[in-house]
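=== RUN LOG ===
request id: a7f3
mode: sequence -> structure
chains: 1
length: 73
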Amino acid sequence: MTARPVKHSLTLRGHRTSVSLEAPFWQAFREIAEAEGKGINQLAAEIDEARGVSAGLASSIRVYVLDHYCKPG
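=== RESULT ===
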């Protein structure tokens, strides 16, 4: 497994963008999207909409994944 980020293209509200995440984060992000019945583009768009202007999309996705797996219960 490599620690280098892997770049993938996403479509957010009709616009293409590239996001670089480490492979384990991509895998977890896909699993979360599937569990929520969403595509990764839809989930990324929701995260993008909710993030503050000071946070990048890749960082926001990482935090979303961590919050998902670290929340109590």
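=== NOTES ===
Strands lie at 6-12, 15-21.
The radius of gyration is 12 Å.
=== END ===
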